From TrEMBL:
Molecular-function annotations in GO: oxidoreductase activity, acting on the CH-OH group of donors, NAD or NADP as acceptor
Protein's name according to its UniProt entry: Glyoxal reductase
Residues the record lists as binding substrate: 112
Pfam families the record matches: Aldo_ket_red (PF00248)
Organism annotation: Robertmurraya siralis
Annotated gene: yvgN
Keywords: NADP, Oxidoreductase
Family: Belongs to the aldo/keto reductase family.
Length: 281
């Protein structure tokens, strides 16, 4: 189990990815995202997750530069948006992301959504394989892929995805997907781990939080880690950024893990990947 904020999981290509990071979905471009990134790095975070569609890559890059921490000691993720899927357009979108971030490589680049056209995401994947072979990105993966999307992609892929980032929280435990990814050596990563705050008043979670003298958010994020799922909670407040990461000094007992597992309802706060169309804005 990870012992601190810098601890890493090893992806199937040998690249080390931090178990915990800062997500910046819906964090405004400009000072809001710059300050959030700086606060995270100042407090020990080494992983930052953004995406082209978040429209804050420039601020993420600025925050990283202003943090004073060397680029090579950080792990930076971005994603190709639906309307940029396809071989050439993905290569172009990647260069745009790099330019905005002010970097010459990424640690992880993901296909943001599968969409309904498997031929299209396979073209996009081919572009990611090229970026990987060219040394422009240290690891490649997907986001919001169900098992059937992964099986379909892997059937024609030269390189297996290293990561699958999906909505994951106690109301959406993704058991089948988790098992499949584990068997395939694909690291599962959680977005919206707190169900956009909706889980913070869940009675079972509040009760467990009281037992450990931790916040409900800390209990959920610890559950992620004990399930071997990388997690990237989003916050713009420094005290919350610090609090979210204060989860390495305790361990949830098996019976409490089981109680949290028991909250699963297969309920999403985001879109279902089978229904979310590429090009849909």
């Amino acid at each position: 189990m990870p012992k601190n904020l810098q601890d890493t999981t090893t992806l199937h290509n040998g690249v080390k990815m931090p178990w915990f990071g800062l997500g910046v979905f819906k964090v405004k471009e400009g000072s809001e995202v710059v300050e959030a990134v700086k606060a995270a790095i100042k407090n020990g975070y080494i992983s930052i997750d953004t995406a082209a569609i978040y429209q804050n890559e420039e601020g993420v890059g600025q925050g990283i530069r202003e943090s004073g921490v060397a680029r090579d000691s950080l792990f930076v993720t971005s994603k190709v948006w639906n309307s940029d899927q396809g071989y050439e357009s993905t290569l172009q979108a990647f260069e745009t992301s790099l330019q905005k971030l002010g970097m010459d490589y990424l640690d992880l680049y993901l296909i943001h959504w599968p969409g309904k056209d498997s031929a299209k995401y396979k073209e996009t994947w081919r572009a990611l394989e090229k970026l990987y072979k060219d040394g422009k990105v240290r690891a490649i993966g997907v986001s919001n892929f169900h098992v059937h999307h992964l099986e379909d992609l892997i059937a024609d892929a030269e390189i297996k995805p290293m990561v699958n980032q999906v909505e994951y929280h106690p109301h959406l435990a993704q058991l089948e997907l988790r098992d499949y990814c584990k068997k395939q050596g694909i690291q599962l990563e959680a977005w919206s781990p707190l169900k956009q705050g909706q889980l913070l008043n869940e009675p079972t979670i509040v009760e467990i939080a009281d037992k450990y003298q931790k916040s409900p958010a800390q209990i959920i994020l610890r559950w992620d880690l004990q399930n071997e799922v990388v997690t990237i909670p989003k916050s713009i407040k420094e005290h919350r950024i610090i609090e979210n990461a204060d989860i390495f000094d305790f361990e949830l007992a098996p019976e409490d893990m089981a109680k949290l597992d028991g909250l699963n309802k297969n309920e999403r706060v985001g879109s279902n990947p089978d229904e979310f169309e590429v090009g849909f804005q």
